[in-house]
Amino acid sequence: MCYFPLDRERLGRLIRSCRKERSLRLKDLQDENISSATISSVERGMKNISFEKITYLCGKLELDVDQFSVFVEVEEKREMKLRNQLNFIEHSMDLFGPDQGLEQLRSFKIDRKSKWLAQYTYLKGRCYFLKQNWEKAKRQLQSTLDLLEAGTELESTNIKAACQYLFAKIAIEEQGDMILAQNWIDLGSQSFVQGGDRGEICYELLLLKAKIYTGQEDWEKALGIVNELWESLDQITNPYSKVDLYRLKAFFWCKQGYLAEATSAVFQGLELAKMSMWREGAVDLLHVLSKIYIEEGDFESAEKVLLQAATHKEKHSHEYRMIQTYLSLGNLYNYQERWSEAEGWLRDAVRKAKNHTNKIYYVMALEALGDCEKGKGEDGEALRTYQSALEQAERNRFVHQSKTSLMKVIQCQEILKKELTFRDLERLYRIVSQEKNELLTTV
Fold first, then answer.
1. Residue 347 lies in a domain
2. Rg (CA), the chain
3. Which domain of life is it from (predicted)?
4. What CATH number does the domain containing 380 carry?
5. What does the alpha-carbon distance between residue 20 and residue 64 come to, in Å, rounded to a whole number?
6. How far is it, in rounded angstroms, from Cα 63 to Cα 11?
7. 3-state helix vs strand vs coil in the chain, percent to 5
8. Which of 53, 69, 311, 382 could cross-link to 374 by cystine, CB 3.0-4.6 Å?
9. Cα dihedral sign for 40, 42, 45, 49?
């Protein structure tokens, strides 16, 4: 009888796999010498089971413990085949869509003790994420994280960081919760293993954080991340990430007054979006291009670009892109005092933004519509619209938007010769106090 320096967990998996292949239940193998509980402990790799019991169980399954190395080779081949099949499904999902991926996963047989079960549940979660079925996506992704907590065997796959990235995206798209999203991003960055699989996740996490900071108008933090990523442009292979980076870099170049550089970045991004057939990314770039044209005073070109973006109404495109397009067109027409045209686009923007999870779009659309009504001389309507924007901003704790909405409310009340209400004065005091505290903290 050989010395027993065996990897009990691996041998347990082999025994379980052999039993399953023969369609045997635990109680089918139990007898007066070994109980079903002991068999279960062997399969789980428990160290308190004697070598004699393990040898006895292997004998019942016609397995020779002395041939463990052969078993290991067989298991490794089986595991490699399993992993290759899951990788194929992952690529198939990206190429042909989540429905194709789910269909393949549903017909896929995987042992609940397999180390690749975490990848299987991650892929299911990713399919549901792509279908925007947030609840099912969260359940599968949480199952993946629970499985990964049990050991470090799959650390280098970066599945954990990939799950945390998707949780961050869900926090934004389902709830509009930027704080929760940033927490998930930080966890994902901490989990990421350099040199492991899914290397693009580290760039995607940083890009998402930069986009959050940009949306919050925290320009310094956003620009810091964008510049850091720009240094790694050649290492980023995911075309979607590259398009996003070109867009952000162009946005900040435009903001800094480097309009020629911004335009060049937009067109490089558009070329890449065209090659990868990513229309949504192209729409995002068109929004930046319209800002560049506006900065140049070329309103005609800005209008053409935004009207082109407005033609993009694919069923599975994210609604916020359409809201941003309508809002940008409305603001452009407001600036040109083309009030009737502005009102049509802005009412559509308000209608769509009202049901969107990220209420910042709703507040911005209401403010722009109020500007349009004020421009038309409808000050009473404008006041009511600004008040709605203010209520939404306060409800969702948008400090910057609360301030701008309140200022617009006060200006309208002055035009209408209305006295400031005690509530408005209280709001103004709170905003000024908060800004003072933020300034002291910065200093």
1. yes
2. 29
3. Bacteria
4. 1.25.40.10
5. 18
6. 11
7. 75, 0, 25
8. 382
9. positive
Q: Which helix (H) or strand (E) holds 4?
A: none
Q: What is the CATH number of the domain that holds 37?
A: 1.10.260.40
For residue 105, tell me if it sits in a domain: no
CA–CA distances in Å: residue 423 to residues 170, 387, 391, 416, 419: 35, 12, 12, 18, 11
pLDDT tens series, the chain, 443 aa: 343 445 777 778 778 878 887 889 998 999 999 999 999 998 888 888 888 888 888 888 887 766 666 666 766 777 788 888 888 988 888 888 899 999 999 888 887 777 889 999 999 999 999 998 999 999 999 999 999 987 667 888 999 999 999 999 999 888 778 899 999 999 999 999 999 999 999 999 999 999 999 988 899 999 999 999 999 999 999 999 999 999 999 999 999 999 999 999 999 999 999 999 899 999 999 999 999 999 999 999 999 999 999 987 654 446 888 999 999 999 999 999 999 999 999 999 999 999 888 888 999 999 999 999 999 999 999 999 999 999 998 888 887 788 889 889 988 988 888 876 767 777 776 666 665 554 444 43
Give the N- to C-terminal CA distance of the chain in Å, as an integer: 75
Question: Which single residue is written with the structure tokens 């954990």?
Answer: 160
Residue 439 lies in a domain: yes
Full residue range of the structural domain in which residue 384 is found: 336-443
CA distance 222 to 82: 41
Residue 316 lies in a domain: no
Domain boundary among 63, 85, 103: 63
Measure the CA–CA gap between 182 and 188, rounded to whole angstroms. Answer: 10
Return d(Cα 159, Cα 146) in angstroms, integer: 12
Q: How many domains does the chain have?
A: 2
Cβ contacts of 208 within 8 Å, gap of 6 or more: 165, 168, 169, 172, 181, 185
Show the CA angle centred on residue 144, arms to residues 73 and 78, nearest 5°. Answer: 15
Contacts 24+ apart (CB under 8 A), 386-390: 386/412, 389/363, 390/427
What string of DSSP letters covers 206-266? Answer: HHHHHHHHHHTT-HHHHHHHHHHHHTTGGG---HHHHHHHHHHHHHHHHHTT-HHHHHHHH
Chosen domain end from 16, 46, 63: 63
